[in-house]
Amino acid sequence: MGTKIVNRIMLIAGLISLLHSAFSAAHHRTYLRLTEQDWTRLPLDIVVQIVVSLLVVVYNLIQVVGNFKEIRATVDMQEKSWDTLGNLPSFYTFNHRGMALYQNYEPEESSSAGGSKSNLDVDY
After folding, report:
1. Interaxial angle between packed helices 44-65 and 2-34, expressed in degrees from 0 to 180 and rounded to the nearest 10
2. How far apart, in whole angstroms, are the C-alpha atoms of residue 91 and residue 87?
3. For residues 1 and 5, what is the distance between their CA atoms, to the nearest angstrom?
4. CB count in 10 Å sphere of residue 9
5. Which of 17, 35, 48, 116 could serve as 53's disulfide partner, Cβ 3.0–4.6 Å?
6. Residue 40 CB neighbour total at 10 angstroms
7. Contacts with 60 (C-beta within 8 Å, 6 or more apart), sequence order
8. Cα-flanking dihedrals φ and ψ of residue 55, to 5°?
9. What global pTM score does this model have?
10. Is this entry keyworded Transmembrane (predicted)?
């Protein structure tokens, strides 16, 4: 628990340092305009502060967030059976153009006798 608190403090310090470096870069640009000097690049201390702050923020953000899931799909799919892999309820469609083609269609009563014909078979 102690390392999480240290990581959060370092994350906040890194964000503050990153904001400070952005402010310093804007202040440097304003200084160059006022003194009518050409813009060449940021001073080395601002660049170093940006890079170090960014590294601190990224590292501590990863530590604070916690465990990541595997990117590979096979890790999640290993626990599923073949029957559930093809089951996509979001793609079920009950109101489709077949209703307009067969306006007098009356669905058969589903029986548990298990006849050779399913409810999806249509006689032409």
Report:
1. 150
2. 9
3. 7
4. 11
5. 17
6. 6
7. 7, 8, 10, 11, 14
8. -65, -40
9. 0.55
10. yes
